[in-house]
Amino acid sequence: MPQAPIGPKDTLGDIYYKTYTEDAHGDAPHQPPWGLKQKDTFMEFSPCRDWYLNSFPPGEVNRQRARTHDGLYHAYIVREANTRAANHQIVREWRTMVASKDKDLAAKDVEIAELKRRLFGAHDKNESLEIDLEAERVKAATAEEAKQRADEVRDVTTSALNVT
Question: Is residue 68 very low, low, confident or very high in pLDDT (cuts 50, 70, 90)?
Fold first, then answer.
């Protein structure tokens, strides 16, 4: 059910949030009605305000709107304190978090070096086996040629003995 009549100075976002009803729009995807452009950054007030005012789905806006002022204040204080405490801890642990990451990267570098070493070793072994295989082929071909010559010599010798 509409929250308030639409005024002449209402923005697209105002209209979007004021006309939301769970029955009519509850399952529709949230499509923030902002005017943000791809070139916008959060270094200026206007894009920040547009993002902040329009990023939450209407259901959440209505849920927060239904809270009492004391309830909103209580939620704000609790969440802000938790956020700041978490931020404080992140800053305190930042160096160890980065050092944790550096150790992981160093371990990955060692693992990559070992895998490269094994790969090159396998490649060298493969080349060595190919050389050995080629040598065996040459050896077999030479042995076959020698056998054919021996057979020819034997046939010639047998023929010569038969003639004699």
Answer: very high
In a domain, 161, yes or no: no
Range of 42's domain?
Answer: 1-66
Would residue 44 count as lying in a domain? yes
Helices (H), 7-68: 12-18, 22-25, 45-54, 58-65
pLDDT (0 to 100) of residue 70: 96
**Residues 49/11, Cβ–Cβ less than 8 Å:** no
Tell me whether residue 109 is in a domain: no
Counted domains in the chain: 1
Task: Give the angle subtended at the CA of 61 by the CAs of 55 and 65, to the nearest 5°.
Answer: 150
User: What is the spatial distance between Cα 50 and Cα 11, in angstroms, rounded to a whole number?
Assistant: 11
pLDDT band at 3 (very low <50, low <70, confident <90, very high): low
Q: Which two tokens stand for residue 61?
A: 């806006």
**Under DSSP, is residue 40 helix (H, G, I), strand (E, B) or coil?**
coil
Q: What is the pTM of this model?
A: 0.46
Q: Does 81 map to a domain?
A: no
- Nearest in space to 50 (alpha carbons), one of 60, 66, 37: 37
Main-chain dihedrals φ then ψ at residue 103, nearest 5 degrees: -65, -40
